[in-house]
Amino acid sequence: MIGRLNHIAIAVPDLAASCRQYTQMLGADVGDAQDLPEHGVTVVFVTLPNTKVELLHPLGEASPIAGFLEKSPGGGIHHVCYEVEDILAARDRLTEEGARVLGDGTPRTGAHGKPVLFLHPKDFDGCLIELEQV
Amino acid sequence: MIGRLNHIAIAVPDLAASCRQYTQMLGADVGDAQDLPEHGVTVVFVTLPNTKVELLHPLGEASPIAGFLEKSPGGGIHHVCYEVEDILAARDRLTEEGARVLGDGTPRTGAHGKPVLFLHPKDFDGCLIELEQV
């Protein structure tokens, strides 16, 4: 069911410092910062040959990653995103198998403009999983 | 400098349960468990179209992931691994730019039989990075 790893998302306390790490230390292809006010984050994409790293920084008052950075002020891996062909079929399979989908199970539009769902990290070894329909 | 994302490694408290999650819930291609006593882990590879997930479980008395699971008994993302062409050149660039390489800076042989180094997570937003020469 799951396809490609679309991205790893890392919550970062200092976006400019993180961009320097990935550019100068790791020599990666780092894009420009994009504000996504409807998602409460500023995001920078690091493009690798086979996938992406997304650096996430809180934007605005009610950012979904503010709580994460309160608990882990130095940052950390926030979630991983796998691609699926049919997000409703994926949701139904997961709930039938006993996994918990966050929210009311209705996909919402993710940061890439595509339908996404998040799965409960306690059902996947502490790993927050995003599914994105591609 | 960094190339492909070679894998994400997830430390898991119950390898059989995790294999069921990735097989039945997520419908992924899950391999057989392999004991790597020289690395203190039992590993299961989940093969995705563009990269791998490695499920890590402690093996033996002095497993390098035992401490991680003590702090996070439910599991969690342990590290991410990026490929590099020349691990000594990568190390030299990183240390020149101020990043800390764990240990004495001498690459050791990783779980795939290739030279690896680990970078200090405090220099990369709490993310433990493995570099593997391919």
Q: Quick one: CATH class of chain A? A: Alpha Beta
Estimated share of beta-strand residues of chain A: 35-45%
* Quaternary structure annotation: homodimer
Counting helices, strands and paired strands, the structural category of chain A is alpha+beta
Major sheet summary line of chain A: 9 strands, mixed
- CATH A-level architecture of chain A: Roll
Q: Biggest interface and its residues per chain?
A: A-B, 42 and 42 residues
Instruction: State the helix count of chain A.
Output: 3
Explain what the structure shows.
Chain A has 134 residues and is α+β, with helices and mostly antiparallel strands. The first copy, chain A, has a single domain (5-133), classed as 2,3-Dihydroxybiphenyl 1,2-Dioxygenase, domain 1 (Roll), CATH 3.10.180.10. In chain A, 20% of the residues lie in helices and 35% in strands. Chain A has three helices and nine strands, in the order E-H-E-E-E-E-H-E-H-E-E-E. The first copy, chain A, has helices at 15-25, 66-71, 87-96, and strands spanning 5-11, 29-30, 34-36, 41-47, 52-58, 76-84, 108-109, 115-119, 129-133. In chain A, strands 1, 2, 3, 4, 5, 6, 7, 8 and 9 form a nine-stranded mixed β-sheet that branches. In chain A, a hairpin with a 5-residue loop joins strand 7 and strand 8. The two termini of chain A are 13 Å apart. Chain A binds chain B through residues 1-5, 8, 10-13, 18, 21, 24-28, 48-51, 53, 55, 72, 74-77, 80, 82, 93-94, 97-99, 122-127, 129, and chain B through 1-5, 8, 10-13, 18, 21, 24-28, 48-51, 53, 55, 72, 74-77, 80, 82, 93-94, 97-99, 122-127, 129.
